[in-house]
Amino acid sequence: MDGLMIDGTDLLEDYGYDIENITVRTAPAPKTKYIDITGMDGSLDYTEQDGYVRYKSGTMVIKVSKLANMDEHYQLMPILKRLCHGKKCKIIIPYDQEYYLLGRISLKESCDGYWSSAELTITHDPYRYKIKPTVREKQISGSAELVCRNLGMIVLPVINCSAAMTVTFNKQTYSLVAGENRIEGIIFLAGDNRLTFSGTGKVTVTYQEGWL
Asked: Is pLDDT at 26 greater than 80 in this prediction?
């Protein structure tokens, strides 16, 4: 990968458009909520009323360009528009290849007869997602602990079991069926998340990690 990747298309390798500049317009801001109460100093802070900090979408602008005349520009722009304009896309920046952004793109084109340019305004999810989900596996015979280390994004893991068993997380015990399980009470936070399984069989825990 040499250039900006959009839904598996490398703009540099496939069409010759290199990154000219990247402008981070707004970092993902926390969704804050304050309530003023008459007769009380300060405000009540309900930002983490569900126990977590939630974030707004982020916005960035990426400009790509290549040496091209008007004819080539007008041949290539419809291709780029069909690829991404108005769409929610998976975006990988060549300087950050271990993560991807998921965002909706608006394209603005320009050409002065020598340089063909496309300015991509991206409204993206607050988190940068790891390219591949994290997978942790363990063979259980009796009782065993599985430690799942997670980055900053809270996530609901998928637990696959070869046989029915139980799992204890944060002092709560849940029943698991053979096959796929999603337990609302099992949410991974940043850091080490400890699952204690009881039973016999193989467990596979899959979760999507992400950073701000």
From this structure: no
